[in-house]
Amino acid sequence: QEEKKQLTLKVEELERKLETTSAQNIEFLQVIAKREESIHQCQLRLEEKTRECSSLARQLEMAIEDAKRQVEQTRERAASRERVAQSKVLDLETQLSRNKTELNQLRRSKDDAECRYESRLQDLKDRLEQSESTNRSMQNYVQFLKSSYANVF
Question: Where in this chain does the entry annotate a coiled-coil region (predicted)?
Answer without folding.
Answer: 4-141
